[in-house]
Amino acid sequence: MAGSLKDQLLKAGIASRKQAKEAELDKRRKRKKGQHGPAREDLDRASAIEAARREKLEKDRELNERRRREQAERALRAEIRQLAEQHAVPLPRDPELRYNFVWKNKVHSLWIDPSLRSQLAAGTLAVVAIDPAFALVPAAIAERIRERDPAAVVQKPDEPPANAPAEDDPYADFPIPDDLHW
User: Is 128 exposed, middle or buried (0-12, 13-18, 19+ CB in 10 A)?
Assistant: First the structure.
């Protein structure tokens, strides 16, 4: 048996010429749709791939930016820690006074001697927060640390004391004695 399937079906009488022509026409239509269909699908697929690529690039850029900010913050913290550790004034071995200060709405204290207390009162020393601890540093170093991170300096030398009398205070002429130790 030679010939195409169509010829064989026509000879056997299973299909008519009209059915054969309709089958060819359907076959051509499907082929034409197949040519245009995948091209549209390819365009849709390509645009979806491009959108996914752009989204991934944006996400990567945001991630890199966040990593860069975190790295810069860690470097800043390390620089502040190094400045404070290099220039820290050593605390006395036998302190006499407890120096209280407020940091992040909590009262903290350092044990110091009278000479350190007078330097703190004069503003030549400042208290600086280094991670979980505190250090006394000269005012110039505290200013350099404040430039890098204002929150790291606990006590600013140029800050007026919290208990300074107001300008219109009627009791300004009657200072509170400072010789009371609790």
Answer: buried
| Amino acid identity, position 147 | E
Inter-CA distances, 74 with 8, 78, 104, Å: 83, 6, 21
- Integer CA distances (angstroms), 157 to 108, 143, 171, in order: 18, 9, 25
**Pairing, β 106-112 against β 97-103:** antiparallel
Per the CB < 8 A criterion, the answer to whether 126 and 136 are in contact is: yes
Longest dimension (CA), the chain: 129
**Token output for 41:** 């699908």
pLDDT of 145-158, one tens digit each?
Answer: 988 888 888 865 44
**CB-CB contact of 127 with 110 (8 Å):** yes
- pTM of structure: 0.54
Classify residue 174 as left (phi > 0), alpha (psi -120 to 50) or beta. beta
Alpha carbon distance, N-terminus to C-terminus of the chain? 120
